[in-house]
Amino acid sequence: MTERSAGKWILPQPENIIQDEDFLPIPRISRVIPFGYVEDPEDKDMLLPVPRELRAMEKAKDYLKQYSYREVANWLSKQTGRYISHMGLKKRVESEQSNKRRAATLREWARRYQKAISKAEELEKGRPGARASVISEPDTA
Q1: Secondary structure of residue 119 in the 3-state scheme
Q2: With a threshold of 0.85, does the pTM exceed it?
Q3: Where exactly are the structural domains of the chain?
Q4: Burial of 72 (0-12, 13-18, 19+ CB in 10 A)
Q5: Could you tell me if 89 and 76 are in contact, meaning their C-beta atoms sit under 8 angstroms apart?
Q6: Do the beta carbons of residue 73 and residue 85 sit within 8 Å?
Q7: Each residue of 62-105: pLDDT tens digit?
Q8: DSSP letters along 65-111, please?
Q9: By the 8 A CB rule, do 48 and 32 touch?
């Protein structure tokens, strides 16, 4: 029997890698600085992202499917060197989920309103005695 080499095999690379450039500064709206951000030394009203902490937070959200908030919060604190309590983690995750649902609802409402506006414009154009949408004004000069 001849020996055959399997060749060089490379693991597929993750498709959704979060880059440092993806994190944006956010305005400071409360006294508490959220996990993953630090106060901007030049502008006290802005918070600068800490990419390492934010990437760890994304990974922690995946771990919450298998482990408790307390275990994941301890892991997150050890990985980043910045303390976060289990209740702080829970509040942050639930807040992000709520904001995501709210944004999706508002986008759906905007889509429905746009559809209703276009339908109303069609009905207005098709009615008997309808005027043109642009009426020229007489020159006053």
Answers
A1: helix
A2: no
A3: 20-86, 95-123
A4: buried
A5: yes
A6: yes
A7: 999 999 999 999 999 999 999 999 999 999 999 999 999 999 99
A8: TTS-HHHHHHHHHHHHSS---HHHHHHHHHHHHHHHHHHHHHHHHHH
A9: no
